[in-house]
Amino acid sequence: MTSTVAVRMYNVGFGDAFVVTVDHGGQMWRMLVDCGVHSQGRARPIEEAVDAIIADLTTASRDGQPHLDVVVATHHHADHILGFAEEAWSRVVVDEVWVPFVEDATDEDARKLREGQHAAAARITALVEGRRPASGRLPTALRVAQLLAANSSGNATATDRLLGRNGRGFRGPHRVRYVPSTHPAENTVATAHPAVIAHVLGPSRDPATLKRMDPPASARWLSLDDPALDAVPAAGRPLLFNDVYAVTDPATLDAALVAATAQLDLDDLADDESLLAAASILENAVNNTSVFFVLDVEGTGLLFPGDAQQGAWDHVLDDPAARALVAGVAFVKIAHHGSGNATPRRFVESVLPDGRFAMLPWGLVKRWQDSIPQQRLMAALEAHRHTVVHADSPQPVAGRVTVHDDLWSEMVFDLA
Questions:
Q1: CATH no. of 4-110+151-211+284-414
Q2: CA distance to 172, 203, 345, per residue, from 388 (Å)
Q3: 352 and 332 in contact (C-beta within 8 Å)?
Q4: Model confidence over 41-87: pLDDT tens digits?
Q5: Of 87, 233, 326, 356, which residue is the least packed, with the fewest Cβ within 10 Å?
């Protein structure tokens, strides 16, 4: 009897929804990783995608009862969890839900981080509304800042279902696992299926790591002659002058320059673009709290990094044991829809062996159409002979990739 592991990517648009199915000697195990979509990048209404996932689970079950062994909600952005607000999930039996430790109400450090993120989102939203012109139509920068803040606001209805609170949940009770654990041994998770082990590698609990959202220019998919470099925060740009000329004592600066350094203080944002920059920083901070894990199925590794950005990747790649795990995977979910501040150069060019397989969850958002997916990243994946399946335009591969209309694409691996 052939044993397989399949990864099915649903085409929700600019968002993530993946079902992993393990068939090992006839014993089935299923995991859903995220279910959401960005409001400006939908391929279809999210309720249609949810209905399709549940219908597929129902068809695949032996008793007609849709069931998932594990649901992973990598982080609380809408493009990853919005679908869980749909009431249809109340019909699905779920054994466990994994969420990042920042959602743990009993963890004091997590509470401070979560409340700070939510407060910043609320403050940005209020500032945007305070600048709404008489016409009612927001300028582009403010509109995008508003969308980013909404994406980072916590999505309470979906989170209620995932955590089983406020009268919401799945069919029957489910366990909630906050990851990673403070006890390292618990981050190697033995699942209900003997062939499936999960290695939880992130998010980091180190505040300094969580703050490192943008890579230096040398690690980005940009170069000095790339116009996109203009969008790189100043701290991430190559220095034009030797740092001996840097001013380190603010007392020596003109008062106007001192004021300019505080442009991302939410109480004193000078213009629409500064407000947009603050919203973007908040968006990146939430991305860096993504659950980052390798699923090991009888030696076949599947990497799901959520929307992890530079600090989160460094946390993994700088640890020899974690680096070895991600180096050995057969499959990669491309982080953050292929943006330039995720999936760092050293992972693609130095860590991941050539000829692997990847999936890109992506849908058009006009604001980012020239930067996501980052074309230099996609070119590097091609140069290293990786097979990449795009959610919006999947191509079948004999014996490996199946495509079902515009709804989903599935990659299958035979187990040893």
A1: 3.60.15.10
A2: 38, 25, 17
A3: yes
A4: 999 999 999 999 999 999 999 899 999 999 999 998 899 999 999 99
A5: 87
